Amino acid sequence: xxxxxxxxxxxxxxxxxxxxxxxxxxxxxxxxxxxxxxxxxxxxxxxxxxxxxxxxxxxxxxxxxxxxxxxxxxxxxxxxxxxxxxxxxxxxxxxxxxxxxxxxxxxxxxxxxxxxxxxxxxxxxxxxxxxxxxxxxxxxxxxxxxxxxxxxxxxxxxxxxxxxxxxxxxxxxxxxxxxxxxxxxxx
Length: 187
Hints:
It is a single chain. Strand 2 and strand 3 form a beta hairpin. This protein has helices spanning 30-46, 72-91, 110-121, 123-126, 141-145, 156-160, 167-179, and strands at 12-19, 50-56, 60-67, 103-106. It has a single domain (12-179), classed as 2-Layer Sandwich (Alpha-Beta Plaits). It starts with 11 loop residues before the first strand and ends in an 8-residue tail after the last helix. Helices cover 41% and strands 14% of the residues.
């Protein structure tokens, strides 16, 4: 029986997550990660999203997205669908790459937004893949702290504005904020 279509989301800020089918890997190598980020960049541009944080994990991903119109469903359909088709073509497989529909949780306060941004970049640390978020190449953390250039699709300044008036001070405060997180707490 087909699923009922979702009612299109209202403009707002959302923590979005999508997981591989049966928790399978959705990225096999660097090229997969890069292609996913290229598609994400196009979706952010096309749907006028503000993307404040992201993290690509081996079998799922997290996004912190602000939509300015009712575009979350359309954007996620494009992101997951385009990437799944490319992944299946590249790896000569068929079937579903992603399991259930993407999940989204509305982010309704500034504190919730900050905690969600921190939770997202700490995912690889909590999963014991790395000891520090700066060691995970596939998240927004390194770009936010200035360890690498921010991709054009990342609204780094939007997030840093919560932490200070100047970029160096904001980056330092963001680093401390992430570092001070209890690692056994979920968002």
